[in-house]
Amino acid sequence: MQTRYLLSSLLALVLSQLSGTEAQTIPTGQLNVLGTPLEVCSKSTMTGFYRTGSCQTGPQDQGMHTVCANVTTAFLAFQKSVGNDLITPRSEYSFPGLQNGDVWCICALRWKSSLDAGFVTKINLAATNEKTLRVLGMTLADIQVEGVVNGNSALGPNGDGKQALALIRQRAKSLSVSQAVAVLLPSIHGALLMHSHLSNSVIATFGSTLITSVPVLLPCSNYAADSCIKGFYFFFLMRTLEMSTFPRTMNRKWSITDYGEFVATSSNNSVRQLESMQQVARREWKPRTVQPAERTFNYFLRVFLRLMITTVAYAVGKAYCLKHAYVSLDGFLNPFHVARLMDHAMFAVTFFCDIELAYTLGTLPMVMLFKAPYTPIFDQPYFATSLRDFWSRRWNYPIKLTIHRLAFIPTLQLLSYSGKKQSGAAPPLWHSMIATLSAFALSALFHEYIVFILIRGETHGTSSIFFMIHGVLCIAHVWFQKASGFGKTWGTGVFWNVVSWLLTMSVLFVTCPLFVGPYARSGVMLQFPIPGPVLKFLQAYM
């Protein structure tokens, strides 16, 4: 009887989820951004997603109505101009319509879009839900200082001018400390690598411990700067581990130029010579690499035009993402849901452009300084005809090379260590499959670390699921090719390329919520500055 009751309850729960008629449970015990119990925002208009007068939020609140704001005429006009009409009453939502001076629980991303455009409203910190910080990827100091910078000091216990000025000074001081440490750590690591007799493992352990702990212990209160500095820490962490894979007799002889070139490009002259001497099968495919002699005026003109196009595409994606709040999905994307498909497509554009801009602007000047070859981070990933093609050849090649050295090659060497290996013989297929899984597992671990240091309060595990699914699918694809001859004896030509492209893009989009969810919810990829009037102009056509 008890089993029957449990099965009936489970069936009822599943049916309620499918029908969308589940009862709304009002959350209790939530905190504000100050870390104290959440206070009432407004009783006169009964605001909040649950219309309790407080900015409580829960699973049903996809828009995250967490900011208790005192709206202004300019704020309301801007929101209406980007398609978010807060002036007109909507009886079906028990929404009375707002006017100048009203207090209301505003969607966090909507409030942030107004902040970026220069239309800031005063907020009640004691009534603003703590989840605002997670959604926006901001600190309490960020919210307080932004209000002062824009002439609207935040309401609440810490909203006075003296406190805000102290916060501005604190922000500048923390930024200086973070920048100094970001310069100091590579100096310490480089000195140990080039001038000490410590082993690779000792130097890698010491360096990685410092690099992983410092971003957590010394955060910068400026969120945009903090994201950039933590991104550098992650980048340098991978390079630190990668350097340990080379013979100690080689990397001990590096000069400062060799060290800097490797940090920037994952290669230098000694590494290129070593890899050219190794008895390994040469790949048919090689990344597009621009040698110093090829960097002519015409090349830089093409780079400039590409950066301009990428910036415009980023601005379009950012404008769309700010206007249409991201709807969080817990699993896979339904490819037939047009609105959600459009949301993820536009965020993918923003994500792609943000990474390309950051990498190009950060790496190209360094390779010019060291007169080193330059390898672009992407090779038209939107044309990939398989997941293997996407991850091995087209997406984030410099990091792919690092993971290849840290996981794929060591795993193959471990599996092949028998003393009977024939020189030049290709490893068994199952060896390559296990090595592929190890590479995707390391990538999953790295991306979980990125989420941990960049996005406060975000749940973990979805990136691991995403990368392990793709690892298994890559293995299945290789096995299918070997077993069926697809792509060699059949399955070639324009038609099959189009079919393969459609299948690849479908898999990427269906699984992408697992990967992009934390970044889309937090807004961390929307930090590249775009003028407010430009965003406003673009949003008028969306």
Automatic annotation (TrEMBL):
InterPro entries linked to this entry: DUF2237, Wax_synthase_dom
Membrane topology: Multi-pass membrane protein
The organism's place on the tree of life at top rank: Eukaryota
Signal peptide start-end: 1-23
Listed name of the protein: Long-chain-alcohol O-fatty-acyltransferase
UniProt KW Transmembrane helix keyword: yes
Keyword line: Acyltransferase, Membrane, Signal, Transferase, Transmembrane, Transmembrane helix
Pfam families to which the protein is assigned, alphabetical: DUF2237, MBOAT_2
This protein's GO CC annotations: membrane
UniProt-annotated location(s): Membrane
Organism the protein comes from: Chytriomyces confervae
Keyword Methyltransferase assigned: no
Residues of the Wax synthase domain: 374-468
An example Gene Ontology molecular-function term: acyltransferase activity
Membrane-spanning ranges: 429-455, 462-480, 500-520
